[in-house]
Design brief:
Elements (H helix, E strand, L loop, with lengths): L4 H13 L2 H8 L3 H15 L4 E4 L2 E4 L1 H27 L4 E7 L6 H10 L3 E7 L5 H6 L5 E5 L7 E9 L1 E6 L9 E3 L40 H10 L4 E4 H6 L5 E7 L4 E8 L5 H13 L10
Helix pairs in contact: 1-2, 1-3, 1-4, 2-3
């Protein structure tokens, strides 16, 4: 039995809206028609995906698992369509993703000289969406900071990048150049502590979060740095990004006692485009193992 992508897309809409009525409106279809499609999907999978009660539409355990898998599956479906349309063009397009703190201009310039048959596009990504750009096909290759989900990508490690901690410029440590993570125990970390396994200090707590939920954190780096500048806590980031996000009210200190982040090149395991290997080899040769950028 093959999954019907259209029904999976309907399922995701209901899951995200927690309502058949709102999802039907979003999908421009009637609520009874949407309900029939979801029932057909449940029959295909031989599971119940939603529980309906007075509080609304709630995912079952099976539903939560399908939602986790459905989003990347839909993104991959979109990527296939995009790559097929791109392949139909007379000009071969090659998109390269990069993020703050990783200078790729010399590599892109050299690759353009080596592959004049390609129309090369350079796309800005962030740490939070680097995987999305690879999955949905917006880029062919992407410079990333590990880790990535296992099993999905070819990964070419390039160099380890040390990390720095962002503190308010008014913090007593702001005049230092280096600080150990143990010296920050009294501070609040303004990000998911899974990003910094060595962290032993405080993290934000949402009093309404379920038991075991570590808290609610700022979504973007810009939001994190606003909290740092205000004195709400600290933020740990790759050293190369510190130069990109330079501001007078934030100080960046080299952070000891935490592991470096590996900068790598990544692309889908299923791609056979020969230029991928050519670009990976060029990146390895021009970046190669070496020190991370100096935050000063």
């Amino acid at each position: 039995m093959d999954l019907d992508i259209r029904r999976v897309r309907y399922f995701v809409a209901v899951a995200e809206e927690s309502s058949f009525v709102r999802a039907a409106s979003r999908l421009y279809m009637t609520q009874p028609a949407l309900s029939r499609q979801i029932r057909a999907l449940e029959e295909d999978l031989s599971v119940v995906l939603f529980q309906r009660d007075r509080q609304g539409t709630v995912l079952t355990r099976a539903g939560r698992q399908l939602l986790e898998d459905a989003r990347p599956m839909l993104a991959m479906s979109q990527a296939v369509q995009q790559r097929v349309r791109t392949a139909n063009r007379e000009v071969n397009q090659f998109s390269i993703g990069f993020m703050p703190g990783i200078v790729v201009t010399p590599i892109v310039r050299e690759f353009a000289r080596m592959a004049p048959q390609l129309d090369i596009d350079v796309v800005h990504t962030t740490v939070t969406d680097q995987v999305d750009f690879l999955i949905d096909g917006r880029v062919d290759v992407c410079y990333v900071r590990l880790p990535l989900p296992e099993g999905m990508f070819e990964v070419v490690p390039l160099f380890p990048e040390p990390r720095v901690v962002a503190l308010s410029s008014e913090h007593p440590f702001a005049e230092l150049k280096t600080v150990h993570v143990e010296d920050l125990r009294d501070m609040t970390l303004l990000q998911d502590p899974r990003d910094v396994p060595e962290w032993r200090g405080r993290v934000p707590r949402d009093p309404l979060a379920p038991q075991g939920d570590t808290g609610r954190f700022p979504v973007t780096i810009e939001e994190c740095l606003e909290g740092v500048a205000f004195g709400s806590g600290c933020y740990v980031m790759p050293a190369g990004m510190a130069s990109f996000y330079r501001r007078d009210d934030v100080a960046y200190l080299t952070l000891e006692g935490v592991a470096s982040r590996m900068v790598a090149l990544a692309y889908s395991k299923h791609r056979t485009m020969p230029e991928l290997n050519q670009f990976a080899e060029l990146s390895r040769r021009m970046l190669g193992p070496g020190p991370g950028p100096d935050p000063d």
